[in-house]
Design a protein that fits this description.
heteropentamer, A alpha/beta, B mainly alpha, C alpha/beta, B: mainly alpha, MetI-like fold, 12 helices, 75% helix, C: alpha/beta, five-stranded mixed sheet, 14 helices, 10 strands, globular, binds adenosine-5'-triphosphate, binds magnesium ion
Chain lengths: 337, 288, 310, 288, 337
């Protein structure tokens, strides 16, 4: 294990965290404007629909929001305590620990290895990106974290507990287009997990779903069935479905791959805005380095089939030049093998 | 080769064609009519009746195969006298009981089969073993357990409905795409809720075809079984009507009874199964 | 006691039961015995179904041919001890053919096909075997089996009348044989069961388990008395009997044909079994039943009305 | 809130874990055994036999329901004497003929139904009308057209096989995803080649379940129909054997015959349908 | 119709064509190195596997290659004739003419318009890109050209003839992942259209398919079934299947959307290399402006739902700055509505 940190600041700790926080507060929900500017180098045009989107007050979410506030207070109290404690105490318990996990598929009588002894930690509230060549096992890893695929070696721990099957605390956006039950309208598709997991009642779920459909630009298609949508629209429904759940952990497998540049950017902003609100933990697969740098706090690079960890980079709080350098670094790594 | 490189053409920039969505652009009536399958099926029905008439006249054996017109006359007579309707009512009532019970059991068995490996093997063995068993095999059991009468008939009907439907449903359930299963599990659905809210709707095309087959076999079985379980005090259904008329060599009435079976079958197909299909799997794009 | 569930098959051979029920004779005789009898009757198709119903206790009295009675008696001996109650009358069974070349059973060739309800095991088939045994010797009793075709009476009759199929002979029962004879002038009688069995013989019988008879002596007695009265009634009022049949069965068979069957001099309505032993002995000879019947009392209950039976 | 922003952690760069694909990593035998459904199904079979024995002993009415052991004894006797094997052979031969013909016709009808709208309506009407018809309805027709003997039996068998299979197959075909259809058309496939190379394989899960149902119904029908057509010149099959023994109240032999039907059904399921399923739809990931 | 050319050179004609040709010849099969450099600004690393790929001599294709050569001679003769003729004479007959086509879907009793009076021409041998927002009808247009969707208004002409249903002369790569018959192995999936359209015999088709599988990096998965592949691998099989046919016209619907940057670039190079050999006509849907500029000779920009023509740009023979300007121009257009 030849870990060599390539950024000087190691445990920047509480102070850095507070700086970061101020920066974020300044930038408001939209995330760091600098970030947006250099990620989308070609255009800095303000996105129209962000303004519109803030309008609905979403009264049906109030009860939950109150709970959230209480949590936030508790978290703040914890954070105050944290100032005195050594920094690693606060960060010791990762939300997700993937511990030397190998994933195998059985084919006829043999088994085929998708990932080989992959290990990484995802901290609470972290946006963690998986990058790697096609077929290197990113989707398999995501499915394993989602509880759909048992690890044939190693363990997957969620808050220190081994995962025991799928659940709505880890909402997933899959890579395939056929993830929407075809017998539900677009609206019901988004509302259904909310009622199924008993998060909201039917009326509340539909209101909330309608709101999210508007956010992904599909308000006009609420009554349509999935087979009447284009590929990108289907994926947007899946994204709305996942985001509407505001889960503690979100798994997204190339969610924006089928979207045009503009829609993609809007979706990224929606994602980041929701993250600002909810601070969920995000595991995000993409094949766009640019997107990885834009979305991720940390980026894990996997080597080709079978996937093994090649590198893990910090991607938060970089300036434009650092970002460019990191992008090139990652590209180099991906080209290597 | 290189000369084949495309020639450059000028750019163009247009103001997009205005498009005002004409709110309700209903499909023209004639097109809807042309596509409605009702009249085509009715036409086919008439055509088949014609074929029957011709075949019967060629065979010229009205004791074995009366012409369609004779059967139609008998049908009208007995419908008018109310006898056929009464008998069809008796049969339908039994049929619905047996069918309903069979459907519930079949779906239950399918649910069990999806839940565990043992359940799957159980279903596979049970269907493989019991499905080919003719009704005679069940008569003694039915008699022992239920005696003569409606309950035995329902038992035999359940046997006719259960296996084909369970087979079709479980085949449909096994063919549900993995992604859809994962989506369902992801919602936190497990056990019966998972089956009812994900697997069954996703398997609906198969289930519908199973329901159709089961319906048909329920009819077949009922008409055959009414002979075994008999008619107490003239209360027999359509099967008994057919049997009795056959015994009296009133072949036109026999075929009138069969024609009623055919008509009921066709009506149920048009009014129930087709409609369900149109409102579910077709509408959802799961079937053309 | 007080309940009587009767299973019969379809046809005019069950005329006595029809009359007894229609005239409420069983209830009447029950009253005089001091019991209120509730009579239920079901129509089933086929001897095996009736036997199974009786064995399962779903019915109390079964009506079927002599053949099923003998089989059931043989199998239940020492257990349920099923035996006959009474005969429903003597009806001749005709073997008819539309092939003019066939005058006796010796004339059947490989081209002929004889339709009957069940090859080898039905009463008709047994009678034909008995006739064959007489004709060609016991070892050849099943010589004609290969010409036999199992076909329900209606279809066989239709085939015989209208032709068009391979079937050109039919061993039927009333009223199908009469219909066949009336429907096609070429159809003629080749063999009558009476010739084979040695005179008028019981066609259909009623039977029950020993247990029923023992536990319901009054009902049993009332039932037998009602049958006797019905037999008398039919013999005296054939027209009325035909009417009752038509009404009860919802039958559409022409009245004339019914009357022709009832008035047929060969048909006798009496409840004592007649000329059944020959068939019973034959069935034992060919191994269809294991117990050897020595007299009609073996397989009929030892009742006064059966005393004259044969 | 802001304090919850994740803390930066150091980067790491690893030489990837070496991975040498162990060429053949066969699944351990015990695991394969545990997953093989054969022994579980056999166990269920034995369990069912036990249930039968108990039920029979409780009923204590061996003329109506003989215990399993009695039936087994009868089975062994008649198998040893060769009678049962001969009869099963006769039945199987007929069955295969009728089944084969029925399958061909059903697939043909399905192909027709996919090709034109009229074909679809024809199939829908025909199945809705003829499927519920009991075999009695066909008896006169079979007599007139095919006479006595094997050909009539095959006719009746085709009736039993054709409709359920056509229903299942056409439901399967209608559910083939649009993209797959487009891919096939894109290859330039049309007409029968398109049906044979795209639609039928894609509908295979449904077709397989249809084949299973049809197989079972062919058995049922055969056993019932052999009474009418089967037995000229002592050549009757299993249905005849069952019928004759039933007439003679040899109930143990009746159940021996039925047990043979069950056994054959189970063997065919294990050896034919399961195997086909494993080698096709399971292997292709179209069914779990 | 306010067409305003934004590039000065209008009918640059034969000379420009020859220049372009020389440029291409210099660059070899790899296309213009400058192009590669600025499209993939971050890395100019030569792609390893191109060298390997040239090795197989593909003897089974010889008979066809001879015919091709004859065609080439004829084409050359035609080209000589062209020098004297006015340039528009040679370019007058487009391979594909989409003539004011509207596409409608029937939903319940209404019909929904996917594209509204779209008109464009694609010249023989042209690489034509469709760009537009998600749900604007790109896939629908492609399906209409493929013969899968009838136009409810207007005409689609192929070499002047109205199209009459689908055919192997217009091989399509669809957007969906379920376009591979699941009952065929990867190899058979690629080989099948070759035999089905009677282009090659079975043995030849398998050899050729094997070759193409190697080119898309899936040589090791020839015996696998589609369900055992990752999303990107499935798309690569579909790409191999289409390219192996070397059709006269190729329709590709976001073929590279599911691929990581490296694999995507390789695939693009394969596509361009094949185009150099075969000079097929390409209709290509993408949502990446960068890819559009890299792959396309011409780019059609559609306005959002329902799709209408917004603009059409020439994209061949641009230098880096022009390319950047065009990219920004297009981005602007896409953001506009
Ligand atoms: N159901 C399956 N059965 C067998 N092998 C599989 C299965 N699913 C995936 N694999 C194999 O596992 C490996 C990893 O697949 P995975 O889908 O995780 O890749 P990925 O990183 O998501 O690729 P992509 O970027 O193309 O989506 C691949 O080699 C694939 O062949
Ligand atoms: N089968 C269908 N039935 C009804 N409407 C459909 C159908 N397919 C597509 N549409 C509608 O047609 C429009 C265009 O769809 P299309 O798939 O062509 O879009 P697209 O440009 O390919 O989008 P994307 O980039 O998201 O794939 C969409 O509004 C969609 O709702
Ligand atoms: Mg993937
Ligand atoms: Mg699309």
């Amino acid at each position: 294990m030849s870990a060599r940190p390539d950024v000087v600041e190691r445990w920047s700790g509480v102070n850095a965290g507070q700086d970061e926080a101020r920066r974020l507060r300044l930038a408001g929900h939209a995330g760091d404007p600098a970030e947006v500017a250099d990620a989308d180098a070609v255009s800095g045009t303000p996105l129209k629909f962000r303004v519109a989107r803030r309008a609905p007050s979403r009264p049906h979410l109030q009860p939950r929001a109150v709970g959230e506030a209480v949590n936030a207070v508790a978290a703040a109290a914890a954070a105050v305590a944290e100032v005195d404690a050594p920094p690693h105490a606060a960060t010791h318990q990762p939300r997700l620990r993937v511990d030397n996990v190998s994933l195998d598929y059985r084919v006829d009588r043999r088994s085929i290895r998708a990932t080989h002894q992959v290990a990484f930690d995802v901290m609470p509230g972290e946006r963690f990106v998986l990058l790697g060549a096609s077929g290197c096992g990113k989707s398999s890893l995501l499915k394993a974290v989602g509880g759909f695929l048992p690890a044939s070696e190693g363990r997957i721990l969620l808050d220190g507990q081994p995962i025991s099957g799928p659940g709505p605390d880890r909402m997933a956006v899959f890579q395939e287009f056929d993830q929407l039950p075809p017998w539900k309208t677009v609206l019901d598709n988004v509302a259904f997990p909310l009622t199924a997991s008993r998060k909201l009642d039917v009326a509340g779920a539909r209101l909330h779903a309608q709101d999210w459909l508007a956010r992904v630009g599909l308000a006009g298609f609420a009554g349509a069935f999935p087979h009447q949508l284009s590929g990108g629209m289907k994926q947007r429904v899946a994204i709305a479905r996942a985001l509407a759940m505001s889960p503690r952990m979100l798994l997204m497998d190339e969610p924006f791959a089928a979207l045009d540049a503009l829609t993609r950017r809007r979706m990224q902003e929606e994602l980041l805005a929701l993250w600002e609100q909810e601070r969920f933990t995000l595991l995000f697969v993409t094949h766009s380095i640019e997107e990885a740098l834009h979305v991720g706090h940390r980026i894990l690079v996997l080597s080709p089939h079978p996937g093994r960890v090649r590198a893990e980079f910090n991607a938060q709080g970089l300036d434009g030049a650092q970002r460019l350098a990191l992008g090139q670094r990652i590209e180099q790594l991906l080209l290597e093998t | 080769m290189s000369l084949m490189a495309p020639v450059r053409r000028p750019d163009r920039l247009l103001d997009p064609q205005p498009y005002v969505p004409t709110t309700a652009q209903p499909v023209p009536l004639w097109q809807r009519l042309a596509e409605a399958s009702g009249w085509r099926q009715a036409l086919l029905l008439v055509l088949l009746a014609g074929l029957w008439e011709v075949a019967a006249r060629l065979a010229d054996n009205d004791l074995l195969l009366p012409p369609c017109s004779a059967a139609a006359r008998a049908l009208v007579t007995d419908l008018a006298s109310g006898e056929l309707l009464m008998r069809a009512g008796v049969s339908l009532q039994l049929l619905l009981q047996g069918y309903g019970l069979g459907v519930v059991l079949a779906l239950g068995l399918t649910a069990l089969a999806t839940a565990t490996r043992w359940g799957r093997d159980l279903l596979a063995s049970l269907t493989a073993m019991f499905n080919p068993l003719p009704a005679i095999a069940l008569l003694p059991l039915a008699l022992l357990w239920f005696g003569l009468g409606a309950r035995s008939l329902v038992f035999v009907l359940v046997h006719a409905v259960l296996w084909p439907l369970a087979l079709a449903a479980s085949a449909g359930v096994s063919a549900v795409p993995e992604t859809l299963r994962m989506a369902g599990r992801n919602y936190g659905l497990t056990g019966p809720r998972f089956v009812a809210q994900i697997l069954l709707p996703a398997a609906l095309p198969s289930i519908l075809s199973g329901l159709r087959v089961a319906w048909a076999f329920a009819w077949r079985t009922l008409i055959a079984a009414e002979l075994f379980f008999g008619a107490s005090s003239g209360q027999g259904g359509l099967g008994w009507y057919i049997f009795q008329n056959r015994n009296e060599l009133m072949t036109d009435h026999v075929f009138a009874g069969l024609a009623l079976v055919i008509l009921i079958g066709w009506l149920v197909e048009r009014l129930v199964f087709s409609t369900i299909e149109r409102w579910t799997v077709r509408r959802w794009g799961m079937q053309r | 006691e007080g309940q009587l569930r009767i299973a019969e098959q379809f046809g005019i051979v069950y005329l006595l039961l029809n009359v007894a029920q229609d005239q409420k004779l069983i209830e009447k005789h029950g009253k005089s015995e001091g019991v209120d009898i509730r009579v239920q009757s079901v129509q089933l198709s086929g001897g095996p179904a009736i036997n199974e119903a009786l064995l399962s206790g779903s019915i109390d009295v079964a009506g079927a041919g002599v053949g099923p009675l003998l089989t059931l008696w043989d199998k239940t001996r020492g257990r349920q001890n099923v035996r006959g109650i009474a005969s429903l009358g003597n009806f001749p069974y005709y073997l008819t053919s539309s092939n003019p070349a066939v005058r006796t059973i010796a004339d059947f060739s490989d081209k002929d096909r004889i339709a009957l309800p069940a090859v080898g095991v039905s009463v008709q088939s047994r009678i034909l075997q008995l006739a064959s045994a007489r004709q060609w010797g016991d070892s050849q009793f099943n010589r004609l089996d290969r010409l036999q075709v199992a076909l329900p009476h209606p279809d066989a009759t239709a085939a015989l009348i209208k032709g068009g199929t391979e079937i050109n002979a039919h061993f039927g029962n009333p009223p199908f044989q009469e219909q066949g004879l009336a429907g096609n002038p070429a159809v003629h009688v080749v063999l009558s069961s009476y010739d084979v069995l040695g005179g008028p013989a019981s066609a259909t019988v009623l039977y029950t388990t020993e247990k029923f008879r023992k536990e319901n002596p009054k009902t049993y007695r009332a039932f037998v008395a009602a049958l006797a009265e019905a037999a008398e009634f039919v013999t005296r009022h054939p027209e009325q009997a035909a009417e009752i049949y038509q009404r009860n069965e919802g039958s559409k068979v022409p009245r004339d044909l019914l009357l022709k069957v009832i008035r047929n001099p060969e048909v006798q309505f009496k409840i004592a079994p007649q000329n059944t032993l020959a068939l019973a002995e034959f069935m034992h000879r060919v191994g269809a039943i294991k117990n050897k019947p020595t007299s009609v009392k073996d397989y009929f209950f030892d009742d006064p009305h059966n005393a004259s039976g044969s």
